[in-house]
């Protein structure tokens, strides 16, 4: 008789035969940075704050002390306009935060989210244009090719500020090629591109849009982000295009509802794969834990383990610091 339970009998036996391991080095800690000198709570994301530049530096230092060597920065400027000019301003919030973190904690990998949605007054990922023949909400979309030059300019300004990795998230066709060419042309051939290669028009982004103030005022993002029912062909096509254009890593966002897609990319490409454990996934666990419906610690670690089992080499997660503490406690036990 086969008895798989033999290898589950004790904690030591279970540890001996595990295939999947979580480590804080695999986590990327997101930080929202705004122009204020205060730290403010985000109501839809319990435990997450908008940070001043000084507080962002402290967050990066705390992450490193916990064994989390990477942070990803999202900027919230005071001034927004139709072209998102603060995204590529030399004294923009992300540029200043990057310089401050690299000056104080140079060992930390600073990943710059490269998009325009937090910087435009309409909340979209590039300048808008009208769609001929349509009216109302459907009459507006993002001008793809006009956005490429602005995204490339943003990437170069972020690299110049000291960003270790550029992470384009706008889902514009050709954005990786445009950014790679701009970085190379400016002498940043050593700076990798972490592409949001497979990014869906997802309901799981709601809390993030509250945090970043990037809810679209007109139209919607379904014209450039992927259809959740698009299937494997669309995912493979998007990932392949980014790989061919020079992406150094491929991301799946959101991660939890798309573990099959994450595993598909892991099997089909020889590039590192990143899972984005997004704001809605985070807030669902927080709400359930607050109501006493679930054990937060066990649920978080099980979820992160699921991302790793599906093939994620790295995980962007708002749970990063808590998970690192829990793993350290488990190691000491």
UniProtKB/TrEMBL annotation:
Pathway: Porphyrin-containing compound metabolism; protoporphyrin-IX biosynthesis; coproporphyrinogen-III from 5-aminolevulinate: step 1/4
Pfam families from the UniProt entry: ALAD
Catalytic activity: 2 5-aminolevulinate = porphobilinogen + 2 H2O + H(+)
SMART domains referenced in this protein's UniProt entry, alphabetically: ALAD
Keywords: Heme biosynthesis, Lyase, Porphyrin biosynthesis
Enzyme Commission code(s) on record: 4.2.1.24
Domain of life the protein comes from: Bacteria
InterPro entries: ALAD, ALAD_AS, Aldolase_TIM
SUPFAM superfamilies: Aldolase
Protein family: Belongs to the ALAD family.
Assembly information from the UniProt record: Homooctamer.
Name of this protein: Delta-aminolevulinic acid dehydratase
């Amino acid at each position: 008789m086969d008895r798989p339970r033999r290898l589950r009998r004790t904690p030591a036996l279970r540890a001996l035969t595990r295939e999947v391991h979580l480590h804080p080095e695999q986590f990327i800690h997101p930080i929202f940075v705004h122009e204020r000198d205060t730290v403010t709570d985000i109501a839809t994301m319990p435990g997450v704050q908008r940070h001043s530049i000084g507080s962002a530096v402290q967050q990066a230092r705390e992450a490193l002390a916990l064994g989390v060597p990477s942070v990803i920065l999202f900027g919230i400027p005071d001034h927004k306009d139709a072209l998102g000019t603060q995204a590529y301003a030399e004294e923009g919030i992300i540029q200043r935060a990057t310089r401050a973190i690299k000056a104080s904690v140079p060992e930390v990998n600073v990943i710059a989210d490269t998009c325009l949605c937090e910087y435009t007054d309409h909340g979209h990922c590039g300048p808008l244009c009208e769609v001929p023949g349509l009216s109302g909400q459907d009459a507006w979309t993002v001008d793809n090719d006009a956005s490429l030059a602005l995204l490339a300019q943003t990437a170069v300004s972020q690299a110049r500020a000291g960003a270790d990795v550029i992470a384009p998230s706008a889902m514009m066709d050709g954005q990786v090629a445009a950014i790679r060419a701009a970085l190379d042309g400016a002498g940043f051939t050593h700076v990798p591109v972490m592409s949001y290669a497979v990014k869906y028009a997802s309901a799981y982004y709601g809390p993030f849009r509250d945090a970043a103030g990037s809810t679209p005022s007109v139209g919607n993002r379904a014209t450039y982000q992927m259809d959740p029912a698009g299937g494997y062909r669309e995912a493979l096509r998007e990932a392949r295009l980014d790989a061919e254009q020079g992406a150094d890593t491929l991301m799946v966002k959101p991660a939890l509802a798309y573990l099959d897609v994450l595993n598909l990319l892991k099997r089909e490409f020889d590039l590192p794969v990143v899972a984005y454990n997004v704001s809605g996934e985070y807030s669902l666990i927080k709400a359930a834990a607050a109501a006493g419906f679930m054990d937060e610690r066990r649920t978080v670690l099980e979820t992160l383990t699921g991302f790793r089992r599906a093939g994620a080499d790295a995980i962007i997660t708002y749970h990063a610091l808590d998970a690192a503490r829990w793993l350290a406690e488990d190691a000491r036990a």
